[in-house]
Structure prediction request, 343 residues.
Amino acid sequence: MFTTTLEKISRSENLTDEEASEALKLILNGDISSEEIAAFLIGMRMKGETVEELTSFVKVMRDHAVKVEVDTTNAVDLCGTGGDKSGTFNISTAAMFVVAGAGVPVLKHGNRSVSSKSGSYDVLENLGAVPNLQKDEVEKLFNETGMAFMFAPNFHPALRYVMPARRALKVRTFFNMLGPLLNPADVKHQFVGAFSKEAAGMMIQILGNLHTGNAYAVNSHDGLDEVSISSQSEIFELENNVTGNSVTFDPESLGYKKVQLSDLMGGDAADNAVIIRNIMTGTSTEAQRNVVELNAAFGIRVSNITSNLETAKQMAAKSIDSGEALRKLDLFISESQKVAGDF
Prediction:
């Protein structure tokens, strides 16, 4: 069956919902060799994945996931696809603490680096947190702090059959696009970054197909899978299960001065951990602070705690200036260590 699927995509023919589902089930069940998985990933990339195929993949992945059972009211996930090759610091991970400091619950889903110097897991570990938590530990941490980080391999254990092929290929695959759509807590408010405008448009359609409440999917003109302050960004919005065309967002419309992309560059996980702490303590560059504040504003807005972006920006700024974001960072670090030690 899998050989037939490989032959079909080699002819640039799209898979039916059933074919896409069955192919991924075979992979996740460990029935397919790494060489065949690599061929499938490259074949799908060369053919070009459809929204229907990707929706089927997400459904299968969610069915195979370990579920995090917590109250997700107004909780948000901030997650990028990775694969933008930009070299920026971990902006969405930093924004997590600013959003939490504004009173919005955060259930962030993430991984180690696959195609960049520093994934969210890597930078959290360098900050002193324990990102490698299991279901019960994540639930306890979230209930005590209003924040959690869900390390993808712990909640999508079947991905162990895919990782050798992904690491060997070292190129972006559809799993980059799936990652932000696989939150184990099934949050209904998502702010996702994409490596291209086309990918962002597809992701917002998939989220709509899966009955997400509110979401933004963004890609900036300078290539970031975040809202940038060095260029305009394309932003797709899902509200009340309705998606539309993208809106071109200019950071100057919210009062942010444009900077050079080089001003947003990071380094390895240790370098990025220093940048994040500097932002929280008010000792970072203005560009570093502003890009995190802006992305946090979108995270706050998508939670539905406020109905407009200007108020969300003010809440994000207050979170940093009041020291609440720093308090949330330190609380996350200490409580994740405690929770890991208790189990």
Q: What stands out?
A: The chain has a mean pLDDT of 94. The two ends are 43 Å apart (CA to CA).
